[in-house]
Amino acid sequence: MEVPRSLPLLLILLSHAACHPVPKTERSFNKLLVISFDGFRWNYDQDVDTPNMDRLVKEGVKAKYLTPPFVTMTSPSHFTTITGRWIEDHGVIHNMMFNTETLWKYSFKDTQRKSEWWDNGVLPLWITAQRQGRKTASFHFPGGGANYSGEAVHRSLLESFSHPDDNETEWRENIDIVMNWFTKENFDFVTLYYGEPDNVGHMKGPETENRRIIIQQIDRTVGYLVEAIEKNGLKDNLNVIITSDHGMTTVKKKPNVTEILLSNFIKFKDLVKFDILDYGGFGMILPKPGKEEDIYNALKNAHPHLKVYKKDEFPEHFHFAKHSRILPILLYGDPGYSVNGRFILYVNKGDHGFDNADMDMKTIFRAFGPDFKKNHLAEPFDSIHIYPLMCKLLGVTPEPHNGCHWLGCGDRGTCHLVCLCRRVYGC
Ligand SMILES: *[C@@H]1O[C@H](CO)[C@@H](O)[C@H](O)[C@H]1NC(C)=O
Ligand SMILES: *[C@@H]1O[C@H](CO)[C@@H](O)[C@H](O)[C@H]1NC(C)=O
Ligand SMILES: *[C@@H]1O[C@H](CO)[C@@H](O)[C@H](O)[C@H]1NC(C)=O
Ligand SMILES: [Zn+2]
Q1: Is Transcription regulation included in the keywords of this UniProt record (predicted)?
Q2: Strands 147-148 and 151-152
C-alpha cells in the first residue's frame, strides 16, 4: 500500500501487513447510531471522572481529538459532519439564517424548520442512505428537519422552542425511543443530538464546576446507552459514533483584557447595511454601498486580537468564505475575544466560533461496535472525514465529498486514515 508523498494530511497508518480483508458475512452492513453532544471540548473528560466513557475507549476507538471546520459553530459544523462537505460548499454558513434585504434574522431553532437554509444542492447522508434502501431517522440533529430536493428524512424529530437542554430523564427516554426505532421498526441509521454541554459552557463557562457536573451527566447517559444496547440485543449489529461540533473557550473580559467592540472604530449608522455580530468569535458585515474600504480600513488594524478580511482574501485553508451567503467583510477574534458590535452583551461566559486550529475549539470522536477496533487511540483528524466513514459502515455509496477515503487494504486514494474499522479494513 503506497501513500502519495504529496499528502499534507497523513493521520495514522496502520501497518498494512496486518490488514487482511475479511469476507462479508450474511448481512452486508451493520446499523449505525451517531450521537452529538453539542460543544463537547476534546478534553472535557480529563478533569472529571467519566468511567463509562473511559470504558468505551477500551471497547472501541478514541481519537485524541477531532478538528471541526471553520466556522466552529453548531449548524455549519453538524452539516459538514453529515455531508462530508466544507461549509463553503454546503452553504450552511451560520447558525442564523438571514436576509440582507429585509434585515431579518432567524434563530438556530427557527432555521431547523426552513428547508431553504439547508437544501443548497448538497445531500446529507440521511437522504443518500434512504435512496440506497436504508431507513434513516434524525432525533433533534441539526438539519434533520429539512427537505432535500423535496425529500424528507424518513423520521425526524425537532426540538421544541422551549426544549430544556439538560433533562437527564428525557435524555434516557430519547435513547429508549431510538432503541425502539432500531429494534421494532428496523431503522438502519439514526442521528441523535443533545444540546449539552454547549449550553452550560456558554452560560457558566467551560472551566466551571457546572460544566464538570454536566459531563458526569453525559457520562451516565453513555453508560445508560451501553446498557440499552445490550438489553435490546443490538451489541453485535449496531455501531455507535459519539462526536460533537466544536469546543468552548472562556470569554475574555475587562479589566483583564481590552475587549473587541467594533463601535469604537466604526460608525454603524453611516457604514453598515447589515451585520451578523455578537455571536461568539466570528462576525460578518455587509457595508452600505461604497463603504467597504472605509470599514475595512477602519477595522483592519483596530484591535490586536481582531482579524479582519475581505471575503476574497479570507484564508483558503478554512474552506469557508467562497459561498454567496458570505458577506463582504469577515472578522474573527483570537481565542476568547468575542466580536462585539454596537455594545457588549454580557451573557456568555464561554463561547466558540474561533479558529479551528485553537485547541479549545477541538472536539471529540469516539466509536464502538462490531466494526470498530478495540482499545485504539487514533491520531487527531478532521470531522469532514466522518462522512465517508459512515458511508463505509452503512454500505452506502457516498455523494461527492471533501473527506478522505477510508480505504480498504490495497486500495489507493487521496489519503488514508486510521484503520478504525475492523470489518472495512479487516485489521
Ligand atoms: C417537507 O415537505 C413536506 C411535503 O411536501 C411538507 O409538508 C413539509 O412542510 C416540508 N418541510 C419542510 C421543513 O420544508
Ligand atoms: C424531565 O423530563 C421528564 C421526562 O420527559 C419529565 O417528566 C420531567 O417533567 C422533566 N423535568 C423537567 C424539570 O423539565
Ligand atoms: C481575570 O483573570 C484572572 C486570572 O486569570 C481570572 O481569575 C479572572 O476571572 C479574570 N477576570 C475576568 C473578568 O475575566
Ligand atoms: Zn454547537
Answers
A1: no
A2: antiparallel
Q: Are 418 and 378 in contact (CB under 8 A)?
A: yes
In this structure, the strands spanning 365-368 and 60-63 are antiparallel
By annotation, the residues acting in catalysis are 74
With a 6 A CB cut-off, is 176 part of the ligand 2 pocket?
no
User: Would you state the pLDDT for residue 27?
Assistant: 65
Query: How many domains are contained in the chain?
Result: 2
| Chain segment 381-422, per-residue pLDDT in tens | 999 999 999 998 999 999 988 887 665 433 333 334 544 544
C-alpha cell at 110: 427557527
CATH number (domain holding residue 336): 3.30.1360.180
Q: Ligand 3 centroid to 242 CA: how many Å?
A: 33
Of ligand 2's listed atoms, the one at least distance from the Cα of 167 is 1
Q: Is residue 36 part of a domain?
A: yes
Question: 401 CA distance to ligand 1 centroid (A)?
Answer: 26
pLDDT digits (tens, 9 = 90+) for 119-158: 999 999 999 999 999 999 999 999 999 999 999 999 999 9
Q: Please choose from 162, 165, 170 the residue to mutate so as to test ligand 2's pocket, defined by most ligand atoms within 8 A of CB.
A: 170
Choose the residue to mutate in 114, 147, 148, 151 for probing ligand 1, maximizing ligand atoms within 8 Å of C-beta: 147
Q: Which ligand neighbours the alpha carbon of 162 most closely?
A: 2
First to last CA, the chain: 14
**Cis peptide, bond prior to residue 197, ω within 30 of zero:** yes
Domain boundary among 347, 374, 402: 347
| Regions of the chain short of the pLDDT cut 70 | 1-27, 405-427
**Residue range(s) defining the domain that contains residue 202:** 16-248+357-419
Asked whether residue 236 falls in the same domain as residue 269, the answer is: no
On whether both 207 and 337 belong to a single domain, the answer is: no
Q: Measured from the CB, is residue 346 less than 6 Å from ligand 3?
A: no
Q: Which ligand does the CA of 363 lie closest to?
A: 4
Atom of ligand 3 lying closest to residue 254 CA: 13
173 lines ligand 2 (CB under 6 A): yes
Cα 253 to ligand 3 centre (Å): 8
Whether the model clears a pTM of 0.85, i.e. scores above it, the answer is yes
Domain boundary among 347, 370, 391: 347
Any idea which residue has 449496531 for its cell? Answer: 238
**Model pLDDT, residue 403:** 81
Q: Helix (H) and strand (E) counts for the chain? A: 13, 22
Distance 364 CA to ligand 2 centre (A): 28
Say yes or no: 64 and 204 in one domain.
Answer: yes
